[in-house]
Write a structure and sequence with these properties.
GO terms for molecular function: 2-oxoglutarate-dependent dioxygenase activity. Keywords: Dioxygenase, Oxidoreductase. InterPro entries: Phytyl_CoA_dOase-like (IPR008775). This is Phytanoyl-CoA dioxygenase family protein. The protein has 266 residues and is an alpha+beta fold. It has one domain: Jelly Rolls (Sandwich). It contains seven helices and 14 strands. A hairpin with a 2-residue loop joins strand 1 and strand 2. The strands form three sheets. Strands 4, 5, 6, 7, 9, 12 and 14 form a seven-stranded antiparallel beta sheet that branches. Strands 3-11-10-13-8 form a five-stranded mixed beta sheet. The radius of gyration is 18 Å and the shape is globular. Helix 2 runs antiparallel to helix 3.
Amino acid sequence: MLVKVGSRELELGGEHLTELRDSNDIRYDFDALRARIAEDGYLLLRDFHDREEVLNARRAVLRKMEKMGKLDRDTLLEDGFMADGSRTLFFGGTNEDLPELLDVLNGPRIMGFFDQLFGEKSLTYNYKWLRAVGKGDYTGAHYDIVYMGRGTHNLYTVWSPIGDINYAMGGLAMCLGSHRFEELKRTYGTKDSDWDKVNNYTDDPLVITGKYGGKWATTEYRAGGRDDLRDVPYALLAGEYDEPVPAERGHPLSILPGKSRRTLGR
């Protein structure tokens, strides 16, 4: 099966693309979870959020998009089909007009998980990185730290799908082992997206693996009821090509230990 990752079509199960490993077998063993994320650079946790809470957040986002004229008016709101000509929408900010979304992203379920993972009180940024990816669009390969590392690098990022995502729609892909690409971390990984005017590293996933090694991995996702992916900020992520199917896809945020709290700025 061919899956579009960035600008490439890769064979799932082939030389360049495999399945992400989920960590539900050790879901409540926090020592094992710490060891797993150190080894793999990420945790994929299924059945984490309450599905209905996530779908409520999805409906709130879609209603906002509908008011903006970004959805196809001849389809059901719940299906989330983008209007012809609509491209990716970025709703970066505090998203205070979407309390249903914040109930999921800032709720006790996720913050309590990180309290246990860190062994201390966790914090999250007020700013959220919410995207609705349009037909034919994708996010190139990047380190989250380039966008989220201002103030501290002692953090984890979380990607939560707020819609069901199959391979044809395109979800999130990760380059396995990229949290250990020391040369890339010393160069691209030290940049700030605003101050240094940098964005994605490349749209071609094979540029990464050809130069640094590793292998890309992905999976199918289901809103809330199944999937949440947390990763270290030095893990290369890429968005897959989006077919003309539901628009709203995923939301990354950052979680950091309480001791890491600093003024966010240089």
